[in-house]
Design brief:
With about 300 residues, the protein is α/β, with parallel strands linked by helices. It has a single domain, classed as Alpha/Beta hydrolase fold, catalytic domain (Rossmann fold, 3-Layer(aba) Sandwich). It has a six-stranded mixed sheet, with helices on both faces. Strands 7-8-9 form a three-stranded parallel sheet, sandwiched between helices. A hairpin with a 2-residue loop joins β1 and β2. The protein is globular, with a radius of gyration of 18 Å. This is S-formylglutathione hydrolase. Its EC number is 3.1.2.12. It comes from Saccharomycodes ludwigii. Keywords: Hydrolase, Serine esterase. One of its GO terms (molecular function) is S-formylglutathione hydrolase activity.
Length: about 300
Amino acid sequence: MPKIFKTNAEIATCGGKLLKLTHDSKETGTQMDVNIYLPKQYYDKSKKECHESKIPTLYYLSGLTCTPNNASEKAFWQLQADKYGFTVVFPDTSPRGGDEVPDDKNDWSFGKGAGFYLNATEPKYAANYRMYDYVHKELPSLLQQEFGSDGKLDFIKNKSITGHSMGGYGAISGFLKNYGAYKSCSAFAPICNPSVVGWGIKCFSNYLGSDNKAAWKQYDPCDLVKVVKSTNASDKVLIHVGTKDPFLNEHLRPELLLNASKGTTWEGKFDINLVDNFDHSYYFISTFVPEHAEFHAKHLGLL
């Protein structure tokens, strides 16, 4: 069987290896970069070749302008993946490609690097900007085909999701839209109500249509909590936001998610932690990665 992924680098780090990969995506119509960290448990020769329990996966969705390398280098997920025994997948934030992929070179918060984890419907962007189906459907399937065939890794059934900023919104939105598919969800400084803040309005308008507010609601966590029913008593979404985050009051607005969840089955299930003095950077993210890793490890059955 021909290989799906091209390995551009295989880097020993902590107790496992970080693989930097490229593959052709039918969803985006482009080549896509993705990094995966295989923890030390994957390489443990003392374990049986056929693991009784497969190594689960945590998907990490990055924020505006990021590539798969940002979190791979700065978030320090690898140490936690080794501690608990899960794989980490770092997808890209948008289709890339050349001039055939539409972009706004004058705006870092829209276009390439800012796919907003949705399926665009506006004709200019619909062919390439299909990051929702790419992240939640195509990529896990391709990873399972190539890396899960030996029975050690599980990219589809036992998985959780997290993300930062735009990726935090993408994680919460994807968790709710695929309720039951992910064992847990967390977010670092997420865009909580994109329909009413600048970054979200810009991306929703251009990708989905400025007048198509019904489509906006299909991705906005503050709308999804009203239509997606929580049926599991253990449901909880862990969120950290820094009080000195420069985007807190203009773009993130975590209080709007709390308000939207009131009177729904999600009331009391968003554990939003405002942490003093922290900003929007990877210094902030890496500080709270251990807490998020433990949270996901419990839900993935590793504790």
